[in-house]
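New to this. Help decode both lines:
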Amino acid sequence: MLIEREFTIDAPLSVVWNFIKDKEKFAKCVPNLEQMKIVNDQRFILILKPKLTFLRGRIEMDCTIKKMEDNTGILLVKGKSIGSSFDAISEIILADKKNKTTLHWNVEITLQGLLKHVPESVIRATVYFIADRMIKNLSGLT
C-alpha cells in the first residue's frame, strides 16, 4: 500500500533538515512515543503505545536509515505488535519554498498478521492522522 502526502513547514529548509537528521529530536515528533533506543548511527528502535481501536498494546518499530543526504531521507521500518507486523519504506524529500520548506513524504507499507484484515481505508486514515500529528509537532519544535 503506497501512501503519499505533502506538507509545508513554516521554517527554512536548513532548519528542518538539521532537525530531521537528529534522530533524538525527530523522535520527539512521533505521537504516543514511550521510548527510543539508539542501536547505532543508522539504526534505532521506537516503542509506541498508540490509541488505535484495531491495535492494542505497544508497537516496536525497528528503524534503519538507508539514506540521509541531499535533503532526502529513506527509512526502513519493521514494526511488530501482538499478532501483527508490518514492513515499511518511508521517504522524505525536502524543497525550499520562499523561506518555508515543502516536505514530500511517501511510504510503502506491507501488512502482516492481524493487520492484513483491517480495511485499507482505516489504515490510510490512521497513517494520515499520525503523519499530520508528526508534522504539527515538527512545526512546533523547529
About this structure: The mean pLDDT is 91.
